Amino acid sequence: MSSGQEAGSSSGGSGDGGAAAPRRNTRKPKYSKFTQQELPACKPILTPKWVISVFVLVGVIFVPIGLVSLKASRKVVEIVDRYDDACVPANTTDKLAYIQNPTISKNCRRTLKVPKDMDAPIFVYYQLDNFYQNHRRYVKSRSDAQLRDPKKANDTSTCDPEGTANGMAIVPCGLIAWSIFNDTYGFVRNSKNLPVDKKNISWKSDREHKFGRDVFPKNFQNGSLIGGKTLDPNKSLSKQEDLIVWMRTAALPTFRKLYGRIHTDLKKGDTITVTLENNYNTYSFSGKKKLVLSTSTWLGGKNDFLGLAYLSVGGLCFFLAFAFTLLYLIKPRKMGDNNYLSWNRNPAGR
Amino acid sequence: RKDFKFYGIALEIFFSFLSSVIIFQIMIPISLYITMELVRVGQSYFMIGDTRMYDSSSGSRFQCRSLNINEDLGQIRYIFSDKTGTLTQNKMEFHQASIYGKNYGSPLQVTGDSSYEISTTESSRQQGSKSKSGVNVDAELIALLSQPLVGEERLSAHDFFLTLAACNTVIPVSTENSLDLVNEINEIGRIDYQGESPDEQALVTAASAYGYTLVERTTGHIVVDVQGEKIRLDVLGLHEFDSVRKRMSVVVRFPDNIVKVLVKGADTSMLSILRREDDDELHNSLHAKIRETTENHLSGYSSEGLRTLVIGSKNLTDAEFGEWQERYEEASTSMTERSAKLRQAAALVECNLTLLGATGIEDKLQDGVPEAIESLRQAGIKVWVLTGDKQETAISIGLSCRLLTQNMHLIVINGSSEFECRRLLADAKAKFGIKSSDSGRDCQDIEHTHNGDVSKLRTSNGHMSESGIHNFELTGVIASDKSEYSEKVANFADTDLALVIDGSSLVYILEKDLESELFDLATSCKVVICCRVAPLQKAGIVDLIKSRTSDMTLAIGDGANDVSMIQMADVGVGICGQEGRQAVMASDFAMGQFRFLKRLLLVHGHWNYQRIAYMILYNFYRNAVFVLMLFWYILHTAYSATLALTDWSSVFYSLIYTSIPTVVVGILDKDLSHNTLLHYPRLYETGLQNEGYNLTLFWITMLDTLWQSLVLFYVPFFTYNISTMDIWSMGSLWTIAVVILVNIHLAMDIQRWVLITHLAVWGSIAATFLCMVLIDSIPIFPNYGTIYNMAASRTYWLSVCLIIVLGLLPRFLCKVIYQTFWPSDIQIAREAELLKKLPRQLGSRPASDIS
């Protein structure tokens, strides 16, 4: 956009007040640049050089960002292992009966091979597919007041159907807390345990302000239906980071949650043995469960979309700049030429 | 408990639908009405504050009395205007005269209030009797009148002004009535004249300015003060003006017992009764030359738009006088055919006259009226004049204010019966090839005309000739041969038409089934003048147009007679003038002069229309893009109508995040300066053609909205799918992105960036961040802390940036291509203005605008 001339230059004062009587002049509108709509202004118009400059500028900005983003994404090393089907015993015909039977052992052993060197910290995620944490009824089934204040323990009106059990209030109440994820993972490499650091996996603001340090689980998972993990009644909610992570509900039906961090570097070719308990029921709604080990960069996890999108848009802008340059060279139109006015193009008039 | 609150698939679908209705209700832009009202108030403020629409003579500023039709000013197709007090100043002024073949007064003379006096030996008496009415006097003519009464030229001048003073029905009213002989020596005082027509008043006033003052009138005599000497004239008979003879005459006896007839009338009727033969060859040649010169002067006066009269007189012999007196007395006392008998008596004396001269009277227009009408016409607006005055006066005004031009074909409808009106309408339509909505009937009319009696057609045409004005070329006799008829029709197709119709004809037309005929004829004419119309007929004419087209109408007037048409029109404009304030009280807008209408429509009308048109499209866009974004998300929530945005952000979106910029732009944005708009009146046609807002533009806008909403939703979707992103963080990303996108969308279209505009646009984005921070700082909300965590993420900002560029790229591209290869007139004028290619006289000084 180019700047036109300043519109502020105009004559002031009253030009034709001489003939009127002095008292009549009080009705005259007061002159100012504002009331006459003559404030100094920038008036942009799209000239060819500005159009081409805009496209080139966008290209120059977007292509490098795209390249850098794509490189960062490609740098991430990620191991994804789906285990919900593999951990079901071979002779099981009814997966739902298997997962709901507490007498059957849920232990499972998985082997992961490290494809590239993975620098610490290595993030451990569990991934759920086809789990609608964003369903309206699910999202609203919680009581933020109860989570913060022990005096509000009985404030369970928004938590149905998991507000009370056996006539007593559930803390923490609601479908979200009730359905907390309860699979566990242990990692062994070369016969040595890899410790998983489960501290600071939640937001600091959540731990300090949304989950009270004086609020303790009470009457949790005491109903006839068990939805997920049981909580330690002797730890306050602000220290139950698994709960805090789970209660920050996911935006989309396929999501990951942070389980913990491994602060040991992994080398290419290492074999990781995972000992996990396959406790969580995803078989009733055709969900999937996956274990993810991933490194991280400034961009976050592995995601090519941003890089590819930036490259595409930047490339398109370069192409458009080139195309418009050709167009303006081949078929120029003089700016502000009165011959292009419609009544000049058609001599007979409109 | 297994089926907690599950009511079956059908009911679940129904509940989901009801939830969606609640969530998506902002698709219907209820806030648009509030926004529009605010914008119109702002626009009205600037119209009222425009110093160029302030009338210093009456001390009245522009008024907006309606606050909901500002943009209609940008789409006016028809203007219905009163004449007296609206186009004119309700004042006639003596401008030029031709006496004994010599022209006095100059067309270049600037009218003013100064009188000119020449010292003479009788200056003291002359000053005492001079009228201070403000008539411009010609120095040369004053000098001639100061000479002794000797010579033909001097005598002609003497008789000329005596006729002006005597041949009328004006009553002098003295402000200081004094008949005392003692006071006769002193100044008599100011004399006002009251008459039935301002023409006569102007003539008598002019005569007084030149020293021939009418001081007394009774039924039997008049007294004229001639250069300080009183002359008593006995009035023996008076033939009033009528439209058949087109002249009036008075028979007077002078103190020396000479009987003369003094005549004034239209040139078409006067030139045919002048004396032609004389025994003296030299004298005859001189008179022929005087006549020719006078006729040239008359043509000049007419082309200047002046009203013309020819002055003549004759001495009556005793025999002529006796014969006339006998017929006159008989006619005056007659009970049957009085008018015809009076006309016959007049014919005895109104013949063989001596030509004294001619006059040109200006029906004094308001300043700038011809220029304003010319500009409005160029803008594609049709101007109709509806006046209660007689036909000749209306046509004269049409000429002087450039409504009518010399090369226009004039159609006159002045029938005195329904049958005659029907025939005149059908003839006019057939002659000029005007199609009616019923094509079958049109053919029938043509056949009927073709097969009609030639003599009747000739009579009809003759009638039109008789009614027409001398200056117009009327069409010849209708050819009976079909081929010639076709040729004539073809020839008329390129001619500008003007329609003149009188009130008595409208009585029949507006109450019968002739309305559609009149509509077809009138809308094919470039100009329509209605004369001798009653106030209700004015409203009927406005309704004739309103009920048959979707075009916008505007009525402008200054008096109580105009109230009905002002209220009938889509836009009513009142002029604060001499006739009180009824028109102003009934109007939507009020101003001091007609010429301000040019600025009101071409500048403010254009601006208001463009602003409102864009604002409506934009408001539909900003609500739709928000709703569609929510809709795409619902497709991924098991159709459960979940809102990712917090409740507060949903409310604030329309209220705080995006509303102020659209109001500020709606009030302050200008695509062209007022100088450019006044220089190119045809730019107004963008409003007439609905180029700012139409169905095509609406759907193109919706298509763009669809694209932007898809970009808004799916860029974050693909970025954060299979990630730890939570619902409230995603909501905050969408909120920030949609607000920035919507505001930059508006910024891309802003044509005039002033400081307030910057504050509104960027301030809204900043306000959005501020509100997000405040909302996410309240611990009891589930979205607590979201914005702080997201702002630290680089992916977040890269997503926002990608959304903005990718969302607006198609719009920008289409805009560039369209402006490059199919530029609109506004675009070209804007480029010319900003690249300083307009002529240099388009300075911003108010004087340029006024001229």
From TrEMBL, chain A:
Principal subcellular localization: membrane
For the region Disordered, give the residue spans. Answer: 1-33, 142-161
Cite a single Pfam family from the UniProt record: CDC50
Q: Name one GO cellular component term.
A: Golgi apparatus
Q: Which UniProt keywords apply?
A: Membrane, Transmembrane, Transmembrane helix
**Membrane topology listed for this record:** Multi-pass membrane protein
**Annotated localization:** Membrane
What parts of the sequence cross the membrane? 50-70, 308-330
Q: Basic and acidic residues bias located where?
A: 142-154
InterPro entries named in the record:
CDC50/LEM3_fam
Q: Which family does it belong to?
A: Belongs to the CDC50/LEM3 family.
Q: What is this protein called?
A: ALA-interacting subunit
Automatic annotation (TrEMBL), chain B:
- Spell out the residue ranges making up region: Disordered: 113-132
Which positions does UniProt annotate for Mg(2+) binding? 82, 84, 558, 562
Q: Where in the cell is it found?
A: Membrane
Q: State where composition is biased (Low complexity).
A: 123-132
- Say yes or no: keyword 4Fe-4S present: no
Reaction equation(s) it catalyzes: ATP + H2O + phospholipidSide 1 = ADP + phosphate + phospholipidSide 2
Keywords of the record: ATP-binding, Magnesium, Membrane, Metal-binding, Nucleotide-binding, Translocase, Transmembrane, Transmembrane helix
Could you name the domain of life of the organism this protein comes from? Eukaryota
Principal subcellular localisation of the protein: membrane
Query: What EC numbers are recorded for this enzyme?
Result: 7.6.2.1
What is the membrane topology noted in the UniProt record heading this document? Multi-pass membrane protein
Protein name, please? Answer: Phospholipid-transporting ATPase
Whose protein is this, by species?
Oryza sativa subsp. japonica (Rice)
